[in-house]
Automatic annotation (TrEMBL):
Key words of the record: ATP-binding, Lyase, NAD, NADP, Nucleotide-binding
Protein name listed in UniProt: Unannotated protein
A Pfam family the protein falls into: Carb_kinase
GO MF entries: ADP-dependent NAD(P)H-hydrate dehydratase activity; ATP binding; NAD(P)HX epimerase activity
UniProt KW ATP-binding keyword: yes
Organism placement in taxonomy: unclassified sequences, metagenomes, ecological metagenomes
Keyword field contains Iron-sulfur: no
Gene Ontology biological-process entries: metabolite repair
Start and end residues of each YjeF C-terminal domain: 1-132
PANTHER family named among the record's database cross-references: ATP-DEPENDENT (S)-NAD(P)H-HYDRATE DEHYDRATASE, ATP-DEPENDENT (S)-NAD(P)H-HYDRATE DEHYDRATASE FAMILY MEMBER
Length: 135
């Protein structure tokens, strides 16, 4: 299994901008990977023998469009995957969706309604995880 994390600017096909959910599903199906297409609404898709799995996670803040925040997401995603040891593409997609959600919460906590840097998001991850676990 593999996770592919990208944003629409990194893909050259016009269909990505017009139908990001469809683009993520198509890439997951054609490449046999889990796709995380980042944006204000992040689309996660995977395809395996159980069928197509899709998630859409809306960011609570637009301040995540900041250099380095994708690296923070990659770190969160790696931690969630390592902790949960997903055995299928569907489980890996769930882990990716959970990581995207935590990333968004951390950004929201860090921003307090204003601009943020990637380090601000990273420093807010423990609070976001506590919040998610206590819900």
């Amino acid at each position: 299994m593999m996770d592919v994390s990208t944003n629409p600017a990194e893909w050259s096909d016009d269909f990505v901008a017009q139908d990001p959910a469809g683009a993520a599903a198509r890439a997951a199906t054609e490449l046999g990977v889990v796709v995380c297409l980042k944006g204000h609404v992040t689309h996660i898709a995977s395809k395996d023998s159980d069928g197509l799995t899709e998630f859409a996670v809306t960011s609570p803040t637009t301040w995540l469009a900041t250099a380095g925040t994708g690296d923070v997401l990659a770190g969160i995603m790696g931690a969630v995957i390592a902790t949960n040891e997903p055995a299928s593409a569907r489980e890996l997609a769930r882990c990716a969706a959970a990581a995207v959600f935590v990333h968004g919460r951390a950004a929201s906590i860090a921003s307090a309604g204003g601009p943020i840097a990637a380090l601000d998001v990273a420093e807010a991850v423990p609070a976001a995880v506590r919040e998610v676990l206590s819900a």
